[in-house]
Amino acid sequence: MDILTHARQRLVGLCTEQQVDQGKPIIVRQLSAEAAIGPGASDDFAIKRGKERVIEAVFDGARGQAFTDQPSDWQGTLGGLLGLDLSAIANRALFVAGMNAVLRAYGVAAGTIHCTDDAPERCGPAIAEQIERERGSGRIGLIGLQPAILGALAWRFSPDRVRVIDLDPDNIDTERSGVPVWDGREDLARLVDWCDVGLATGSSIVNGTIDDIAERFRTAGKPVVFFGNTIAGAAALLGLARICPFGQ
């Protein structure tokens, strides 16, 4: 069973146990970059450059978000959310944002809202410090180019102990913070072989790459940690390792 389907199964079970009214409304809307991460955040972030958007779901007064490059608005019920066809990226984004809001409402997930202003910049050093403290000072494979995180990893571990893969053609075959950017579609196996620990964007649960990432690290016997608020709900339900120092 794929990870998102497994998370949905767990969510359905939780709603049944809690006797949640599946007729309760959920509203999902797209946020501007300023609303999502604050006007003070660096223009280096993909959301500031229009490469991605944040969508936000509201359920029973609680909020949950998801990053996606296929954002859309949606209004429906909890039952409608649970029944979405998850084969499409846009629907996966809606479901993940909604799941995060529902799990936030019931105290299962925390940090479902992205940090703002200077916190995204401070996030990188905090993540690098936590990785070193918990995972040692081996070679780090970053999956998904997040400039503040990459810069902090390169500074803490040195550029020759960090590699990154990304799906954005504008980033592939460039060098950022002294680290070469490999092709996320072609070089995942290469990255897993090279690194000692993986640090993967939580938005992989939306773009559909998470299962391949998790399986390759599992087969290699190496740990992978997911970062960010998008994967908050799924990580809470499934026990996935997650880092998000300043998620709200």
Total number of strands: 11
Strand content: 15-25%
Give, in order, the helices and strands. Answer: HEHEEEHHHEHEEEHEHHEHE
| Percentage of residues in helical conformation | 25-40%
Tell me the count of domains.
2
In order across it, which strands form the biggest sheet? 7-8-6-5-9-10-11
Number of helices: 10
In whole angstroms, how far apart are the ends? 30 Å
Overall form: globular
Judged by helices, strands and strand pairing, the structural class is alpha/beta
Mean pLDDT: 93
Computed over alpha carbons, the radius of gyration is 17 Å
Unreliable stretches, pLDDT < 50, 5 or more residues? none
Largest sheet: 7 strands, mixed
Structure, described:
- This protein is of the alpha/beta class and 248 residues long.
- The protein folds into two domains: 103 residues, no CATH class; 125 residues, 3-Layer(aba) Sandwich (Rossmann fold), CATH 3.40.50.
- The chain is 40% helix and 21% strand.
- The strands form two sheets. A seven-stranded mixed sheet has the order 7-8-6-5-9-10-11, with helices on both faces. Strands 3-2-1-4 form a four-stranded antiparallel sheet.
- A hairpin with a 2-residue loop joins strand 7 and strand 8.
- The chain is globular, with a radius of gyration of 17 Å.
- The two termini are 30 Å apart.
Summarize the structure.
By secondary structure, this protein is an alpha/beta fold. It has helices at 3-17, 33-37, 78-82, 89-105, 119-135, 147-157, 188-194, 204-207, 210-220, 232-238; strands at residues 25-31, 53-59, 62-68, 74-77, 140-143, 162-166, 175-176, 179-183, 197-201, 224-227, 242-243. It has two domains: 3-105, no CATH class; 119-243, Rossmann fold.
